[in-house]
Amino acid sequence: MGHAARHGAEPGASVNEGLEYDGEVIGGPNGEGRGPGKRGRIWPWLVATLIVALLGAAGGVLIALMQNMPEIRQLDSYRPSFATRVYSADNELLGQFFIERRIPVRLADVPPVLKEAIISIEDQNFYQHIGIDFQGIARAIYEDLRQGEFAQGGSTITQQLARGLFLSADKTLKRKLKEALLALQIERRYTKEEILERYLNQIYLGSGAYGVEAAAQTYFGKKVGDLTLSEAALIAGLPRYPSNCSPLVNPGKALARRRTVLQKMYECRFITGEQLAAADREPLRLTPRRSGNRAPYLVEQVRQMLEERLGQNALYKGGLTVVTTVDSKMQAAAEEAIKTGTVGLDNRIRLRNPDSDLLPQVALVAIDPHSGEVRALVGGRDFETSRFNRAVQARRQPGSSFKPMIYSYALEAGFTPQSKVLDAPLALPAGNGGWWHPVNYHNEYKGVITLTQALQTSQNTAAVRLLARLGVSPVIAHAHRLGITSPLGRDLSLALGSCSITLMELTGAYCVFDNDGIRVSPTMVREVRDGLGRLIWKPDHLRQRVMSQQGARQMTTMLQAVVEHGTGASARQLARPLAGKTGTTSDFRDALFVGFSPSVVAGVWVGFDSCIPLGKGESGGMAALPVWIDFMRGALAGVPPEQFAPPEPLKPQPAGGVVTTSGSPPAPAAVKPAAQQASPAEEAVTLSN
Prior knowledge:
five-stranded antiparallel sheet, Penicillin binding protein transpeptidase fold, single chain, five-stranded mixed sheet, 12% strand, Beta-lactamase
């Protein structure tokens, strides 16, 4: 038959004969054959075996991968780390606490232009693919080969989300396989809108910004919903190169990347050529970078307090909203006063020490006396240089600014502002066999004077005599009721402010005088809400009557005299009713002024952290009062002068004695023994002498 195969049986041939091809019999009787015919029978079995083996191996790999895969249902309860934002009472952003600075945003609040920009550059087939974009992968491979480098990623938005939530950034085949499998599962369980919203909140966009809302505020100082086309294109270009293309780090690369995104948007027909050209011409208009938080000392104090109360996880990841008590206008006035009010002092120190660059520290705290809310706080000249909060943490001697604690108790104990006290040289046993000789500033003595006059010019020996007459223990108890929490020494040097207390304590105590005898505990936080806006914490305000209204108002009039005619007379330049008291410690190591208007109480401290002297003559009126004046001028700008409520007129009193170390009037009943002191809520007895 030559080279033709016999496809039909010859007459008489067995039906089991094999076919012949080129003289070879293929498949003889009983399935037998020889030569190439045998190999032809085995080959399909080899192929089938290989396919089964490959499928088995792939299945084994798949099973191994699936065993270590996270469960996609975790996304239902997954909550990314969101930054806690801290606001002033008038809604100014003061600072943020975060591990990842992320601000949640709903997809409905993301402008279409940003969604289109992200899709154009990251995943053009987002709404068509099932989690893996085979067309995109092919395109990425082509571009990589064309450019000779790994220029294209090929991962879909869903794959990027899976990687960001569940996987590491390792560039391995195993990770890529897991990423693809997770993307398929995510697409089966969630809608495209849910996936896109999670992605836009999850991605890192450079310069510490996680998510598009944080990026919009970091780079442009605006909410994501207010982004322009050029701004949206710049942000959309960051997911792939968040560090290198950050406009704060490399503006040139950021602009080049923005141009690429705009071109992709044009190719996808999201924008016109005119829109592309106009957006590409726009210069970068970045928000100025702030160095740290506003009101940094207060923000740090709030951070420490909330971390202890709420825990680290809630504070740094919970996306809380913290509303503080800060008034942004007063805070700005405080920070400015620290700069302007110390110019004269700094110049004098430089003249005395021309070879030294060391300047004293300054602290200021301002409180609303009626609510206890801290309106402004500065704990030092520069938070970045020194984070030690001298308004809250530093315990320093208050000097004569402590004297109102003594005089206010005297008013509660039956004395009046017109009661007489002797101001003359004094010698008292020191307890070590020697004698203590308290002296007045400039060694000037006025003889018999009223309590108002004694406080007005800060006569030391008069204050010591008054304390000796009242008793140290009851005065200490009274000071604690006013809000002084630090331990106080139980000796007569307390009259000169020898104790160590914080500026916050001292300023809070003065609030009692300005609030008709009611103490309200100082607070820096109004409320804390969670990421859903639910109230989770609000401080309890301690409101307690600790002085009679009459005593508090009398104390205020005495402190007004200090401003009108005494050591605080420089404050008269503000031309409004004010009250306050200076304080100066031994060798001029500390200078203070604490004073108030009817609506705000402010305290200022000036001194070196090392407790070296400020310099001769640097008293509270010279070193601290200028800062206080500058602060009050700014804080009360535009506020009409307010009048203090006057005390009830004094009834005519019978002639009384003069307070000396051994004098008798007023009657001993005016001062209760320490064990019999009235409870904090109880009105003190006012006698008629």
